[in-house]
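BUG: 3D viewer hangs when loading the predicted structure for this chain

Environment: internal workstation, default settings.
Expected: structure renders.
Actual: progress bar stalls at 90%.

Input used:
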Amino acid sequence: MNSEEEFYDAVTGFDSDNSSGDFSEANHKVAEMLDLDPHQSNRSGKHNGETEIQENGIKRHRTSLPAPMFSRSDFSVWSILKKCIGLELSKITMPIVFNEPLSFLQRITEYMEHIYLINKACSHADPLERMQAVAAFAVSAVASQWERTGKPFNPLLGETYELTREDLGFRFISEQVSHHPPISAFYSEGLNKDFIFHGSIYPKLKFWGKSIEAEPRGTITLELLKHNEAYTWTNPTCCVHNVIIGKLWLEQYGTVEIVNHSTGDKCVLNFKPCGLFGKELHRVEGHIQDKHRKKLCMIYGKWTECLWCTDPATYETYKKNEKKGGEQKKLKPSEDVIKSENDEADDMPEVQDTVQFIPGSKLLWRINSRPPNSSQMYNFTSFAVSLNELEKGMEAILAPTDCRLRPDIRNMENGNMDVASKEKERLEEKQRAARKERAKDEVEWHTRWFHQGTNPYTGTSDWLYSGGYFDRNFSDCPDIY
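Structure tokens produced before the viewer hung:
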């Protein structure tokens, strides 16, 4: 069964076996356990005091959310789906508790967490080293999804998100340019004018009964201006298991090809599915080849952990020795493993040992440590925690369509789940009413900051930045909240 839309967000409400009134009381209990005050936050999303300024003048971003995550243990997806047998997948009501307090536009911004890899690529004189850094950046861009089983909010048509990080050297703008199908366009540039990073994302959802597969559509482009180079790729497929029953877990799989359109070099990365015994869970293997298809280096690691590279000869020798040792230890599937194939839930395989280091390898990237209280903050990274922060005075300069101003996300972040649910329903109803009004008046929707065009490197359809956002003329922005 397929659906063009995100089915989690089709209709909002608490149409589950639990009543919405349980949220407030339960949230207070969780807050008391964590020694957090669920009301200790203001409109600006501050927690435990104002945003601090470090001695070097760089602004210190918040390190925790205003309220802890609400427990999902009392909510069953099956309790909702069983009432909707025969209905369209996109019309199924899902409680807001399965969301996380970020918009999908903010989730896209998490690509920039490891921007130092772009800076490294810009600084290298050797094109092979540049490709290695770009490959590491492409893998790091999906690393924040590890254990993130909460669903980001669907952006409203015309919704935007901007982020300027002077400490990291970039600024970023995104816009929801289409609702049917849902398409998010983004553009980022280095403050030193050394790179441009842009693309459009259109996830194609497939429902397989026990899992949901999000197949990425759309091209991601990175331009290194100093080297006059452009790289393009598409993200791997993401699959969330046990959406009906059992513990949610996710994996990434598929082949990612990164093309350097200036040199003809290509990096081919294979994100491996976990397999029967889970041996390949989270693993990434691949190589970089020149325009004549000669392998220049091998890449290996895990998208949840780290990425290494080594020369092809060393890699092949290691794999041959590993294969010989593996044949000696080969085991038959146990009865328990065979039985598990027929279980109702797809249990997540035990995570195998860390990446086996091949002597002589070079480290390309290692994942950042998450905050100690990450599990109570939707498994957010430190970077993700800061994305919805609304500082004093920021409201006056943001576009009125910015995600930070969405009342449903803001209330969920603050722990006001009942209010968040009602606000989400109100916003979606407002969007539907506006769409009907445009259809009635035969008025077409016009995007504000992006336009549909052709990617100059791939020749495929793409959404391109029109410019002008940071001039901050927001007088003609739509009223979507």
